[in-house]
Amino acid sequence: MRLSRRVPRARRVRFGFGEMTKKRTTRIPAAELAGWAARVADERHCSDIVVLDLRQISPVTDYFVIATGTSDVQMRAVANELTAEAKDLGHRPFGVAGRETGKWILLDFVDVVVHLFDEEHRQYYDLELMWGDAPRLPWKPAARGTPEATGE
């Protein structure tokens, strides 16, 4: 009996004619990813959004995005959207924590770490004070009611 090693259909890549089944994406820089994550949180009505530049302070990550959500459902929705859409931008999460409880959700994209807090946990952990030496990265919120913000 001859055993053949077959590649699963979803992983096959055809060369030459025909479509490629494996999607190729261009990876955006970490600063752009951080600004994009802040805009997504803003569009989904998170508040107190801060982007901290940790490049000169921490060897672990380059940027923190910190936002406050109004409910666990909203925070999970923002986390799910960030995770799904970041893949299209070339970034897959290295780790995700806290999605079950919805009090503090952490999305680790290696160069960018997104923290979604409820109000109580944001005040308790106070990451802005802990990383007080980090400069804040300016990000431009999408104007509400414009075609760009509404997706039209």
Characterization of this structure:
- The protein has 152 residues and is α+β, with helices and mostly antiparallel strands.
- Helix content is 30%, strand content 18%.
- Strands 1-2-5-4-3 form a 5-stranded mixed sheet.
- Strand 4 and strand 5 form a beta hairpin.
- Helix 1 runs antiparallel to helix 2.
- The termini are far apart.
- The model is unreliable at 7-21 and 146-152 (pLDDT under 50).
Question: Could you tell me the strand content as a percent range?
Answer: 15-25%
Number of strands: 5
Order of helices and strands: HEEHEEEHHH
Number of helices: 5
On the 0 to 100 scale, the average pLDDT is: 82
Low-confidence stretches: 7-21, 146-152
Short description:
The chain is of the alpha+beta class and 152 residues long. The chain has helices at residues 30-43, 72-88, 119-125, 127-130, 147-150, and strands at 47-53, 63-68, 95-97, 104-108, 112-117.
Question: Which features characterize this protein?
Answer:
single chain; 152 residues; alpha+beta; Beta Polymerase, domain 2; 5-stranded mixed beta sheet; disordered C terminus
Topology:
Layout: H1 30-43, E1 47-53, E2 63-68, H2 72-88, E3 95-97, E4 104-108, E5 112-117, H3 119-125, H4 127-130, H5 147-150
Parallel strand pairs: 2-5
Antiparallel strand pairs: 1-2, 3-4, 4-5
